[in-house]
Design brief:
Elements: H1 2-26, E1 36-42, H2 50-57, H3 60-63, E2 66-72, H4 76-84, E3 90-92, H5 95-103, E4 109-114, E5 121-125, E6 139-142, H6 148-159, E7 169-172, H7 176-184, E8 190-194, H8 197-203, E9 207-211, E10 223-227, H9 228-233, H10 235-254, H11 256-267, H12 272-286, H13 299-305, H14 324-331, H15 334-340
Helix pairs in contact: 2-10, 2-11, 5-13, 7-8, 10-11, 10-14, 10-15
């Protein structure tokens, strides 16, 4: 009898143990880490940030166990302030701001990548101007003095043997759309154009004199900036972010229909023709497969910063960047494996 009772008790214990194992297997694992939270800011909805949007919309952040919040902050200045205050982890499109902030003493910052390595501007003129040399004595519109477009215009004119203010009058017009309007109405003779207004300019029969993105100029247009302490303390998180961005770039290069839908949603562009032109221009002409950063991407940023901060003159570009995060991802074979698929 006692033997049967012991056997029954043992059977009951085993049953309870099996029950608990079943319950635990259905419950979330205590050891399983939640996705890493990451907050990323960008200034404005331009196509240069398509890889960020695609990484979220196509699930690449989630694939790499990241819970990413992407915040549009309105300007790179606001984004830099948020980064310095640790309100965001990464700022996309903070190249010039990152340089200026470091020159002002915020040495814990570093530019660690960019998907666009050149200016995204073109020079357009009325149909009566056929070449750049004919801009002599004419009025060229820019958005505002002291901005990147203004600097790009002065640099371009100098390369072509023209001096801004002497040979060509620069006019501060306002917004990018205002330049197109002013040029179409004859208020200015030529204007610096950005996407998507270059495509509207073509529709109006205006003439493209130069596409600065195809001139071989190196410039970190959509620079990724973070705190050096963040990059050092969380290399795994940074690597996962970079991998997600690389996969997203590969995705938009190979899945145009999905890529254009994402671009249209974030830029609120409903004009199908303009959307396709903007997509093709950025994806096939501008977006590099790997968001690497090099010293030569920083030289013109320093030259631009030197206009308002003498400390930028003679500064070493390497002091403002961290090449290691992207380099390590490339060295791991991740990119080669992705593009062999």
């Amino acid at each position: 009898m006692d033997g049967n009772a012991d056997k029954a008790k043992k059977t009951a214990r085993i049953a309870r143990l099996i029950l608990w194992i079943g319950i635990l297997s259905l419950s979330p694992s205590v050891d399983a880490a939640a996705p890493t939270a990451l907050r990323i800011a960008y200034p404005a909805p331009t196509a240069s940030f398509l890889p960020l949007w695609a990484a979220r919309e196509a699930g690449f952040f989630k694939k790499h166990d990241l819970a990413v919040e992407i915040v549009q902050v309105g300007s790179s200045t606001r984004g830099m302030a948020a980064l310095i205050a640790s309100q965001v982890d990464i700022l996309a499109g903070g190249g010039t701001g990152g340089i200026v902030a470091q020159l002002q003493g915020f040495t814990d910052l570093a530019i660690f990548g960019t998907n666009v390595h050149t200016w995204v501007f073109s020079v357009y003129a009325g149909s009566d101007i056929n070449e750049v040399s004919q801009l002599r004595g004419k009025k060229l519109g820019v958005t505002r003095f002291g901005g990147t477009m203004d600097f790009a215009a002065r640099y371009f004119l100098k390369q072509r043997g023209l001096e801004a203010g002497k040979d060509v009058v620069l006019i501060q017009v306002g917004g990018a759309r205002d330049i197109l309007t002013a040029l179409a109405n004859g208020v200015i003779d030529a204007g610096m154009m950005s996407v998507p207004y270059v495509f509207f300019a073509r529709r109006l029969g205006l003439r493209e004199l130069a596409d600065l993105s195809q001139g071989g100029i190196r410039y970190a247009q959509a620079a990724l900036v973070a705190k050096r302490s963040f990059l050092k303390k969380k290399p795994d998180v940074v690597a996962r972010f970079i991998k997600a961005a690389i996969e997203a770039t590969h995705f938009v290069k190979n899945r145009p229909d999905e890529g254009m839908r994402i671009l249209g949603r974030y830029t609120r562009t409903e004009d199908v023709e303009i959307l396709k032109l903007a997509y093709d221009y950025h994806v096939h002409k501008l977006l590099s497969p790997v968001p690497d950063i090099r010293p030569e991407d920083i030289k013109l940023l320093l030259e631009e910063a030197a206009l308002s901060n003498p400390k930028a003159k003679g500064a070493n570009p390497r002091d403002f960047i961290d090449e290691m995060p992207v380099r390590e991802v490339v060295r791991s074979g991740f990119v080669d494996q992705l593009y062999r698929k």
